Amino acid sequence: MATSHRTEYQIAMLWMEGPLSFLEQLCIASFRDAGHHVRLYTYGTVTGIPEGIEVASADDILPRTDFLKHERTGSPALHSDLFRYHLLSRNDRTIWADTDAYCLRPFESETGHFHGWESDKHVNGGVLGLPRDSETLGALLEFTADEFAIPDWYGSDYAQELRAAAQAGQPVHASEMPWGVWGPHALTHFLHKTGEVQHSFAQHMLYPFTFKQRRMMLKPGLDTAPYIRSDSFSVHFYGRRMRKRLIEKENGVPPADSLLGRLLAKHGIDPREAPLPALDQPQTDTSMTPLPIAKTTSAAGTNLGDLAEKYGSDKGPAKHRYTELYNMLFHPYRDQPIRFLEMGLFIGGPEHGISADRETTDLPSVRMWLEFFSQAHIHGLDVSDFSWFEHPRFSFTRCDMDRRENIRDAFKVAAPFDIIIDDASHASHHQQFAMLELFPKLKPGGLYIIEDLRWQPQAYERAGITKTADLFQSYLHQGHFQHSDPALAAEFDALRPEISGAFLHQVRYLKEKRDQVLVVHKR
């Protein structure tokens, strides 16, 4: 009988700089205690490193400045993606692990592949092993070598949109594409393309708790048998979300009888000796969930453009520059208890050929609004699910705007809003249906704003329908609305007595460009 020979693997991790909390200490120590040699790469001073861990310079793999000077969102996620691919290409017998991945048993591989499904759609790279001669690894390195490379895994419509932007001299940077473009989405695509996805583990082996099940790991007395099986290798804690939950709901320390609490006791780690950083402090986590780089500007002096960069919103100076206008329009509302509605919460979705059931991981503009408006209640609407986001001043409604009655039903009993922003699909009929249903829900003196008027998605746009920019140009020039559908024209005309004023701004406020943003003021 032939004997199976398995290679012993070292574990490589990255923490850019700053202190490690008990969560990272636990994960790092778990690999050491499972018998692995662990190498922690750093760019700056890191404190709280468990004993027996090798520390190495991250600059030897990927100089930080060579990549970060090109970033637009402030998130280290893209750098982390790139780092792990270069690291694997230069090291044998190495498996990458995020600092929020806990080792249940030694990592073993007969092929050099070590990766697993996180959902029925994506293979995650939070734990990643690829042979140096892997076709997938080579494809990932080639694709990420170009910061403006066009991904073809989001559908032909989105790829065509990116090509058109590049041909117009405005190529879209990776940081402005859907989250995961260099991470799990690219990894899954190339694993399928090369056929190496056959090596991917079942979900329970590396991600026994899904992103949406992460709270279960803090539930006292939880029976883990339905999640963690005998052949499970690791547990992913979804670090940034877990830290936030611990601070907001658990006073910074997990229940002693929760899974996380029991694991801390097993490895002799006292969470009080390595507390979690405050939520408003910069994070240096490089796991697969993107993190904003915080700034220390006081609330009174914070500019919306700075906040857009901090949280990675495309409304800021790197992309659309809407924040320049919003700074002037919204300043009087900053410390008022207003009600604010934004439709469309994150790039991607059916308008780009991406499933409405996509996994969502961040809310850049909502985070921006919550910091800018200190007393506001922010309400979000999207065709995808963002109900996982928890904040006492945030509420969410899921709605498919392709049916007008869905919009009507979603806000049938809603209190009036002070500001409404439509940044959803950008389809003309979606914009117009939403305004007809929601303008009556706007308080007197309120503002109704529609963004991205110049682009309509092929997946949704109806042939022959009047564009929203043209609709309002007719109102501004002739005093009444002209529409290809007379019934809709009549409905908009019925709103005229309530409209105090309206104006259109061109792309990036350049007169020679096309109309881009509409602002309507209610009497």
Automatic annotation (TrEMBL):
Keyword Nucleotide-binding annotated: no
Keywords linked to the UniProt accession: Methyltransferase, Transferase
Region span, Disordered: 272-291
Any single biological process term in GO: methylation
Residue ranges with Polar residues bias: 281-291
GO molecular function: methyltransferase activity
The protein's name in its UniProt record: Class I SAM-dependent methyltransferase
Species in which this protein is naturally found: Rhodobacter flavimaris
